[in-house]
C-alpha cells in the first residue's frame, strides 16, 4: 500500500483549502477510455472548463444547477457525472423552471446542451429560457430588494437569502464576476444571439420514434431505447468520454430530460400499478448513469413521481439517482390559505444527496425549505418564522388531559410504557417542519413578524412516535427563568429542559435534543413547550 | 477498515471467521460505509476478493479505500481483487452485442431471466489458481448492492438462487484434486425499503436474513436527521449450531461517520450530548 496512486493523493489533499487553480480539477470518474486504465496516470490533470469548479470536500468537478441557493444546498453544486432528479410538483408549474434554469446556466457557460422531451419541441424549450441577470442590473435590484424587505409584496425582485432570526443574516448576492452560478430573470427571455451561439442537440420523441434508426434489442420501451442511443451517440461523437480519437472535448454536456416516466414516453408506470414495463424506467436510469459516469456530463431529469402508482418504483428510482429534489407546491392544497405560508409558493425537499468518493456528504442542517417565485427570481428560504401560537388551542394527540394554554402544563400523556419521559424544549426560534403526515399544523391568526416577539416551535417530523404536543406558555420571561432554575428538580422527574445557552445555539441542540429523546428507553409522548417572549 | 467496528464485531483481519454470509442492510440511511469497511478488511486480510459493484464506479471505491488504507488499483493489478463495475459493463452490454455471455447479460433480455452468467463470472473469479503456493487465504465475494438487481428486472427468486449458488461455491466447495474446503465469506448489501411496500425487496431481505450468519443493519434515527449521530447500527449474530441460549445475540450502537473513520458509541452516549 506504499504506492499511492497519484490521483488519489489529490483527493486526500483536498482537505486543505482548494484555492488555487493549480489544484486538480480532475473529475473522479473515469472519463478517458483506454488511457484511464493505465494506473500510473500522469497525476492530476489540469482541466479548467468554463462553468465548473472543484468541490472543496473531495475535489470533484461541480457544475452549477442554475440556482445558486440550490447549489449551496447540494454542497457546492452538481457533480459532473451525476443525475439530478426533480420530483415534479403536482401541476408541473415550478419544475419546468428548474429545468430551464439548468439549461440556461449551460448556455451562459458555453456548455453543450442535450434537451430531450416527449411533450415539447426542444427548440421551443430553448426559446423560453430565462435571461441571465448581468452584474450591474443585479446590484441595483438587490438594493431595491433590501429596501422593500419590510413590505412584502408580490413583485419584489429576486433575492436568495437565508433568514434566521437570531443568527446574522447571510445574503448570497451575485458576485460581480461569478463564473459559477448565475441569476436569471424569469420574466425575460434569453437573448436570441446567445441561444444561436450555443451548441445544442434536441431529442423530440414524436420525431425520433418514427425514424428507422437501427436499435439494439433491449428490453426497454422504444422511447427510452432511442433516447439512450441518442445520448450515447452524442457523447461518443462529440468526444465527451474521451474515447473518440478524433475529438478532444473539454466541455461539459448538460442533458435535460423532461417528464421522464410520463405516458408520453410510452411508459405505463403512471397509469397502471403493475404494468408490463415496470422495469423500463429503472433500467433506463441505470444505463444512463453508466453513461454519465464515464463522460463529462451532468443530467437533470424531471419526473412526475406523484403520478407513479407503484410506490416501490419511486423508492428504486431514488436509489438509482444521485441527487433527488422534490418540489411541493401549495397550489390547490390547504396550505395555500395558511397564513404561515402566505409568502411562499411551495416547499422544496432535498431527499437525497450522494456520497461520492467519500464516506460522508455535505448535508445541510436545514431541512425546512420553502421556495417562492417572485416576479423574476426563484428564491429558496429556510426556517419559517413562527408566530404567536396563542390564538389556537393546540390539539393533543392521544392524551387525556387538555392543556390550558396560559399556563405551563407538564404532564404525561398517553404513555403506555413503564417509564415515561417528558421533554420540554425551550427554543427561541424554531424551524417549522411541515408536511409530515399526522402532525397538526398549528397556525396563528396574528402573523406579524415583529422582531421583539419571538416564539419558537419545535417542529417534529415523526412517523408514528414520538408525538409532539405544543403548548404555549403565556408567561413573561420571569416564568421561563423560574422554570430553568428548577432544572435540577425537574431532572429527577425526568424533565429535560434546555438552558438559555442551549437555546441560543438552537440549531445544533435542536437536533441533539431529538437525539436524546430517541435514545431513552421509553418512547412515550413528549411535550414541547415554546416560550413566547413578550416584551 | 474501521477499528472500532472490528472491536464490536470481535474480529481482526488475522483471525476472521470463514464460511460465513454477512448481510448488510440499510433502512432510511446509506449503509455503504459498511461495504467500504468490509472491502478494506478483507483486502488487508490477504483474501482474494471478487467485488460486484453495481451501484458506484471503481474510482469511488478506490478513493475511499485509500482513506481506509488499501489501494484497490494495486490489489487489482496483483490479482487479489476482481472488480466488476456494473455501470460501465451495463453500457457495454446494452449498446454492443456481445459474443460471449456477459455477466450482465440479463439487461438485454425482456423477460426476467436468471443470473447464471453472473454466477459463472463469480465462480471463475474465485477459482483457486493452481499455482502451487497459496497466495491468498480464502475467497470473498462482495456484492453492492443486491436491490439494484431487482430494479434491473430480476425477480427476487432469481436473486436468491444466485446467492444460493454463490454460497454453495464460495462457502463450501470441494476441490477435485485436493480435498479441502475452500471456505470463503460473502458479504451482500440489501436496501430495506421500509414502508415503500416493495414486496420483491422484502422477500429478498427476509430470505437472506434467514440464511446469514451476521446481520449488520444500519438505520436512520427515528426522529430524523441529526448532525452528530448519523444513525444506528444493529448487529445480530445468528449461530444456528449453538444452543438456544447463546443463539441470536444482538447489539445496538449508534455511529457517526467521519472523514476517514466511523465512531461508534452506545445509544445516548454521543460525545455531542454528554
TrEMBL record, chain A:
GO terms for biological process: tRNA wobble uridine modification. One of its GO terms (cellular component) is nucleoplasm. The keyword tRNA processing applies. Its main location: cytoplasm. InterPro entries: Elongator_complex_protein_4, P-loop_NTPase. The keyword Nucleus applies. It is found in: Cytoplasm; Nucleus. Keywords: Cytoplasm, Nucleus, tRNA processing. It holds the Pfam family PAXNEB. Pathway: tRNA modification; 5-methoxycarbonylmethyl-2-thiouridine-tRNA biosynthesis. Component of the elongator complex which consists of ELP1, ELP2, ELP3, ELP4, ELP5 and ELP6. Component of the elongator complex which is required for multiple tRNA modifications, including mcm5U (5-methoxycarbonylmethyl uridine), mcm5s2U (5-methoxycarbonylmethyl-2-thiouridine), and ncm5U (5-carbamoylmethyl uridine). The elongator complex catalyzes the formation of carboxymethyluridine in the wobble base at position 34 in tRNAs. Belongs to the ELP4 family. This is Elongator complex protein 4. It comes from Homo sapiens.
